[in-house]
DNA sequence: TAGGACTTTCTTGGTCCAACAAATAAGAAC
DNA sequence: GTTCTTATTTGTTGGACCAAGAAAGTCCTA
């Protein structure tokens, strides 16, 4: 039953594919061919070992990949069950905030926010109420006070969340929640405490004024400018090769 | 979910964090504190074992997670290098088309599309040009011809891509490209060739007509209905298995 | 006897260890 | 400069043990 030590791999798949990748593929096939649905159970790790003739560590690494992709949910003693959290995972990719914000990430995220915030202008004016304006002004007023960078960016973020909350769309708020870490980093880039207290505060106030005046063009122009103003802090970076 | 990814999930998860999650977090901290950039090398697996007091398997499983998220690229003998392939990984996420589309994925994806397509109505009318209408009509006309399911869904998808292309936002087009495999599956769910030729064609035509008439309310209502009409094909799913 | 509470056993994922294979960068030998 | 050797590092394997929880068995009481 055990693999032949030092022997020919034999049934190994196409050259160049790792054993872990092969197991991932085989589990995918298993899911597809067995027509497993969300909530169904996968065989135990040890069963999969026997079924795919792989060691348990290999199966476990494959399972980690599937788990990272949001396709299975594995709990001790319970085993692996099929799930489908791909959409959540996709957004979480942008919440992974270990390294310096890259120019590309800045561009992607801000373009997306621009789509939401600037692109929904007409919805804003449809739903806008006085209390929205009051809240925005109050939050922004706090920005003018003396905070450290982290606090200031949190307030900046809260301002934008309050803004999009006018849209009353939970999906949007969810997206903002998962992207919060990246957005915070973007907000801090190139700024000081004073920048928040002066420039950012002023830009926000201009946006609120445009909202209050129901001046859609001004609202869109000012908000778009506000979102893109940090672009100057990101220098071109070389394309690394694999 | 994603105990290893969420920075501060805030959820009442089990107090005990797994060793693998801990190592993932420590590697993240290492990247952040060392200010590692794309292309830089991580310490070897064995170094990380010593550094974090973890076994090699634990470190390897942690590395698999980081690799799955497109944050590191590890090659034999070379070691792990920092990368940023999050977009690519997102694409692979949605290429995992092994299982039946779940109700949750349908709901997530269509709600998101609704946000983009319905929520940007006012931008559509701002930018709309005659050639946009002509292209949309032409694409939709093709849908009325006799195609197989795959071809029909491709045309359906092309229609919506052409629609959002009016927004002239590359980020949105990128998102649609990434989600294409899932969107195609959603479009095919519960449909036949004839459904595409009749119902889908008709719904599209109604949307185009509303665009041409610059009737924003009709545009939003019809488009939203069109996106959500497939919902009836997804039944509630239960949690446990047989 | 029936039924519930307690105990034991077994299953299963989580972690660790030790070894070897394979790939390849780096140095040695020519 | 080319080729060979060596050393290092990831890839894979099999085995071991633990902790948590489910399942099964046991025992006590009404």
UniProtKB/TrEMBL annotation, chains A, B:
GO molecular function: DNA binding; DNA-binding transcription factor activity
Pfam families to which the protein is assigned, alphabetical: FCD (PF07729), GntR (PF00392)
Protein name as catalogued: DNA-binding FadR family transcriptional regulator
InterPro entries, per database record: GntR_C, TF_FadR/GntR_C, Tscrpt_reg_HTH_GntR, WH-like_DNA-bd_sf, WH_DNA-bd_sf
Keywords from the named record: DNA-binding, Transcription, Transcription regulation
Coiled-coil segments: none
Domain HTH gntR-type: 17-85
């Amino acid at each position: 039953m055990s693999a032949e030590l030092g022997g020919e791999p034999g049934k190994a798949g196409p050259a160049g594919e790792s054993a872990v990748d092969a197991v991932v593929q085989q589990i995918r096939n298993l899911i597809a061919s067995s027509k497993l649905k969300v909530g169904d159970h996968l065989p135990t790790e040890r069963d999969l070992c026997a079924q795919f003739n792989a060691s348990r560590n290999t199966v476990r690494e494959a399972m980690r990949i599937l788990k990272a992709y949001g396709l299975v949910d594995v709990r001790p003693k319970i085993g692996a069950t099929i799930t489908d959290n791909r959409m959540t995972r996709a957004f979480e990719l942008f919440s992974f905030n270990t390294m310096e914000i890259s120019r590309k990430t800045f561009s992607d995220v801000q373009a997306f926010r621009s789509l939401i915030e600037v692109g929904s202008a007409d919805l804003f004016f449809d739903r806008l109420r006085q209390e929205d304006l009051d809240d925005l002004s109050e939050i922004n007023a706090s920005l003018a006070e003396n905070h450290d960078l982290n606090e200031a960016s949190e307030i900046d973020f809260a301002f934008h969340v309050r803004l999009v909350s006018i849209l009353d769309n939970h999906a949007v708020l969810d997206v903002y929640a998962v992207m919060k870490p990246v957005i915070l980093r973007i907000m801090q880039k190139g700024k000081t405490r004073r920048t928040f207290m002066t420039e950012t505060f002023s830009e926000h106030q201009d946006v609120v004024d445009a909202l209050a005046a129901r001046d859609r063009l001004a609202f869109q122009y000012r908000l778009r400018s506000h979102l893109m103003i940090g672009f100057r802090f990101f220098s071109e970076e070389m394309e690394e090769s694999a």
